[in-house]
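User: Could you walk me through two proteins back to back? I'd like the raw sequence and the structure tokens for each, with a short line separating them so I can tell where one ends and the next begins.

Assistant: Of course. Protein one, sequence then structure:
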Amino acid sequence: MIVIFGLRFVFEFLKENQVEWEDGRWLNQGQVLSIPAILIGLLALWYAARYRRMDQDPPALEVK
């Protein structure tokens, strides 16, 4: 997720805006939508690294 959406974020700087309302904005819609996906990928890496170092299983999610 980090690589795919990180590259999308960068490539969006190279394209022309597709709609008029993106002209005055610093980030276009593709970049704005890529930011949460990059953050989720970073969070997943942090979560995996945290429990790998502790040599323990991650807590089970309880469904009620």
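----
Protein two, same layout:
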Amino acid sequence: MKQTVQLRRSWLLFAISGLILVGLGLSIVGEAILLKSTQQAYFLVGTVGLVAFNAGLSIFGQAVIFRYRYLKAKGRDEAERKAGRNRHRGRGRGPKRSGSGSGSASGSGSGDGSPRRNGGFKSRFEE
């Protein structure tokens, strides 16, 4: 639980910082373009703008990684909570299933209530 809080905080911090730096960098590059059009020195201003823009992209990319880790840890925490809830139930009783197994309402399922995908890739972000 503590790990998910830390990952969420890191994700938000990096995402917001990255977006602010991307906007700042684009604004500074715009100023450099205006300076160039009026025949003034623009090289240093443009370079600073590009550095800020690229730093923002890098920081935002790290935020995406933190978001992925946060959702993965959150799913683990929910699975552990669900397993803890099921631990106190009587033994030998499985989850109730509706339908006779063939032709369920959710399409071609795997039998445990979760839908089966045709492709080989399964996203970790599915709920």
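DSSP finds two helices and no strands in the chain.

Let me know if you want the two compared in more detail.
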